């Protein structure tokens, strides 16, 4: 990368973001990106909402297409959050992999210099330069691990996140089938030092409690190192700060920290825990943020709640030192959707290569899902699949066969062992003349319910249309055994006898 280009990008981050003057900066302590002194950069995706911070200017410059990429700092989420909120790519590299020379430290144990881009190729090229990566390395297989419990914290339906990622993985060679993981159980087990920060009665399955404990350690570590670095400056200068940041700075400077060694022990154990899960070929998939972005000038109580839930997810990478990329995945209810891929410390090229490999397919699949009709937001439970079935039934009655297939398919994605969903989709396929698909769906339905009369009738109809008269006759006869008075089966049997001769 040319020095002039780097200088311009650093200047853009400084100019548009939150780093105007030491006495009036956000200090990487606030995630909304709002700046009461110089005005908040406008989020091009949602002008009425915050851009995310603290590297808000860099994110907005990229999202607004003013620059192809921009640099930023990420201590506790200051690249990942604005990337997610502005609908662009944001990369936090492995801790220590990009030089911090010339950057005023906030918390040296957590600080990183990362970057934003709209194009995965540009994201990759910037990484090649900053990380000084070799151009060619052996391409490894990839294991994807879905953190099921963390997606339960998100308000975005899983068909717009998890199911999109899984669908894309299916089409790539060299990608293992994704595995599911209760992430917080692993953290509770493999990070024993964290036990001192949450109650012993806490259920390891209660992800938000475990992650709140982890984020409290992260924020305590940040505050301790911030005090070490800036206490003298804060007391002598008495800087003017925004309301949320002011409280954080005062608390940090006035605190007497205990158990400092345990902060660093949690950090060390977290890196080891993540490595045991991912090794050098694994990628952890999590939501980047749990909540919808805040509107501008939201109440302090709303902002605090947003921060608490955001830090819970952000603490995973900040405390482990791993690399993470936030990837835009379309919109939900007018707000951007983002998932994050996390790889082990030092596996930055592996992660950048993966994003470059998958990005266009992820965007295509996300568009397909976004263009489908709205789905209730209950994250894949039985109630959601039943509602989808009813929508499919309504579309079927309205002779909208393709929409009916789409709804039944969504229901099957959420609950793939329900015979009725397959049977109903088979009926829609029959109307569309897709007889092989209808036969396959009836096979599935019968495998789950041996007494499903409608499945035998529809499979018989599909087989008759495919000229498999003997097999069709067997299906109609089976239906008659289950329902001796069934007129459809009886008439079909008589018709097929004549055809068979």
TrEMBL record:
Domain Amidase: 29-119
Signal peptide interval: 1-17
Top-level taxon of the source organism: Eukaryota
PROSITE patterns linked to this entry: TPR (PS50005)
Keywords: Signal, TPR repeat
Descriptive protein name: Amidase domain-containing protein
InterPro entries per UniProt: Amidase_dom (IPR023631), AS_sf (IPR036928), TPR-like_helical_dom_sf (IPR011990), TPR_rpt (IPR019734)
TPR repeat residue numbers: 385-418, 419-452, 453-486
Pfam families found in the cross-reference section: Amidase, TPR_1
């Amino acid at each position: 990368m040319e020095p002039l280009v780097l200088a311009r990008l650093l200047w853009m981050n400084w100019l548009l973001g939150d780093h105007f003057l030491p006495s009036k900066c956000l200090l990487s302590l606030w995630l909304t990106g709002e700046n009461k002194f110089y005005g908040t950069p406008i989020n091009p995706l949602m002008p009425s909402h915050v851009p995310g911070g603290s590297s808000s200017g860099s994110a907005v410059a990229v999202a607004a297409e003013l620059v192809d990429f921009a640099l930023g700092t990420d201590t506790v989420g200051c690249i990942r959050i604005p990337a997610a909120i502005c609908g662009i790519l944001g990369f936090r590299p492995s801790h220590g992999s990009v030089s911090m020379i010339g950057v005023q430290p906030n918390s040296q144990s957590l600080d990183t210099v990362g970057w934003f881009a709209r194009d995965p190729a540009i994201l990759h090229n910037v990484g090649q330069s900053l990380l000084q990566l070799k151009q060619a390395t052996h391409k490894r297989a990839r294991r994807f691990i879905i953190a099921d419990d963390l997606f339960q914290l998100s308000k975005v339906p899983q068909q717009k996140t998890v199911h999109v990622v899984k669908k894309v993985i299916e089409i790539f060679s060299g990608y293992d089938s994704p595995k599911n993981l209760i992430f917080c159980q692993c953290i509770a087990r493999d990070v024993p030092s964290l036990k001192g920060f949450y109650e012993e009665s806490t259920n390891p399955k209660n992800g938000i409690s475990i992650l709140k404990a982890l984020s409290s350690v992260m924020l305590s570590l940040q505050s301790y190192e911030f005090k070490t670095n800036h206490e003298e400056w804060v007391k002598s200068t008495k800087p003017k700060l925004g309301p949320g940041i002011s409280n954080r700075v005062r608390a940090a400077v006035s605190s007497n920290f205990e158990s400092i060694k345990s902060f660093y022990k949690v950090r060390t154990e977290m890196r080891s825990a993540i490595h045991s899960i991912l090794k050098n070929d694994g990628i952890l998939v999590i939501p980047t943020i749990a909540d919808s972005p805040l509107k501008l000038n939201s109440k302090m109580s709303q902002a605090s709640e947003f921060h608490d839930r955001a830090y819970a997810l952000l603490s995973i990478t900040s405390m482990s030192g791993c690399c993470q990329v936030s990837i835009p995945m379309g919109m939900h209810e007018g707000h951007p959707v983002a998932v994050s891929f996390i790889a082990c410390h030092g596996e930055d090229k592996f992660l950048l290569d993966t994003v470059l490999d998958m990005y266009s397919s992820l965007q295509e699949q996300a568009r397909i899902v976004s263009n489908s009709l709205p789905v209730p937001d209950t994250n894949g439970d039985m109630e959601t699949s039943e509602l989808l079935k009813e929508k499919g039934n309504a579309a079927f009655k309205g002779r909208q066969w393709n929409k009916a297939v789409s709804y039944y398919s969504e229901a099957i994605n959420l609950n793939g062992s329900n015979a009725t969903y397959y049977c109903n989709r088979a009926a829609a396929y029959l109307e569309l003349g897709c007889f092989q698909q209808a036969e396959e769906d009836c096979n599935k339905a019968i495998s789950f319910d041996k007494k499903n009369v409608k499945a035998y009738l529809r499979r018989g109809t599909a087989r008759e249309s495919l000229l498999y008269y003997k097999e069709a006759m067997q299906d109609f006869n089976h239906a008659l055994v289950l329902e001796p008075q069934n007129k459809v089966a009886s008439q079909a049997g008589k018709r097929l006898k004549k055809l068979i001769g």
